[in-house]
Design goal:
Layout (H helix, E strand, L loop, with lengths): L4 E8 L3 E6 L2 E6 L11 E5 L2 E6 L1 H18 L28
Antiparallel strand pairs: 1-2, 1-4, 2-3, 4-5
Length: about 100
């Protein structure tokens, strides 16, 4: 299974960026999103940045990935999904319209 992960830009040459996540570094293509700056957080999928993230969203994604790992290992995970507790799931806007 392939999963997008948040990474932080540590250097860039305009066409790509060296990004880091938890001591792992990858050279990431930025062709799909354009210019990035050092410190930007990117959602990276198969070594391509697919969009910029704000700090809160990057943390939510990291928490969700940690939560999945904890659940698989039989460890407590509910605290890592705090943004989902006590609320109903919502479809993204593009899926909310009725089709006839």
């Amino acid at each position: 299974m392939c999963v997008g992960v948040p990474m932080t830009v540590i250097s860039t040459d305009g066409a790509s960026a060296l990004c880091e996540r938890r001591a792992e570094q990858r050279l990431v293509s930025t062709a799909l999103i354009g210019e990035v700056a050092i410190g930007d957080r990117l959602l990276v999928f198969i070594d391509s940045a697919i969009r910029k993230l704000d700090l809160d969203e990057a943390q939510q994604i990291d928490d969700a990935l940690d939560g999945l790992a904890a659940a698989i290992e039989g460890r407590p995970f509910e605290h890592l999904f705090a943004d989902l507790i006590d609320r109903e799931p919502e479809l993204p806007p593009h899926l909310r319209t009725e089709r006839h």
